[in-house]
Design a protein that fits this description.
This protein is mainly α. The protein has 14 helices and no strands. Helix 5 (61-73) packs antiparallel against helix 6 and helix 9 packs antiparallel against helix 10. The radius of gyration is 22 Å and the shape is elongated. The chain starts with a helix and ends in a 6-residue tail after the last helix.
Amino acid sequence: ENLFAGGQEAKAITALHQVINLEPSYATAYSRLAELYLRDGKFDEALKISRTATEKNPRDPTGFFMLARVAALLGKGEDAVDSLISSLRADPGYPPAWELITQLNLGIEHMGKYFPRPVLWLIDQEIEEASDQDLAGVSELTHPAWKAYITTKVRWRKFTFQRRNPQYKVYRYTFREELTALTDLLVIWKEVKAENPDQGDVLLDHWLAASQAGALDAAVFSDLFVEQFRQDFTGWKIENPEKFKDYFYNFVIPRASNNRSPQED
């Protein structure tokens, strides 16, 4: 790492090969080696070593991320996207993968950016029954749905605090809580949409489509992932090995394609 940081790349490569000889299963060494080969323009070596990194530890997002970078530079767009999704499947909270998606101008966005900030504030203040004024700045059409979400979240939090040891002050919410709150939100949103078929909301329409296809759990892990969800996510991936990727290919990428203008195509 010191050689790497100091720009002594040739010596760093030698040192990393020594690390691999000592510990052939250490995936991080392969990822770092791939990055050095990539800097040196040795794409074939970088591609091979990146693949090895993903094989050594498929739960580490770094190898898939390096694989995506190499594929992008080689003009292999589909391979780059597939590797980026694999990187996020390993860790939905891995910022470099989302950053590279943005840099590649694929039209794929992190849906969490559409989440309205006033909703989070109301939940933190434990305001169980939000008013329209409380939701000023949020699309009025979505108010009934967000009110249902807020009510469920605040009630869940209050119930959890009542049951927990009072010495613990930090609230840790769960995947099950988030899934329940979004389900309650979408019940109302579906009714709103039925009355206003020509109007919509980017985030809520996206979640509604995912929910109707049985993929709301994948949406939660992708769009609203926090560290508290990691244990649930690990178990969920074992039970649903392809669902995370399916969510991207069936909902995220098609939405991006639909949002691209004719000039972009």
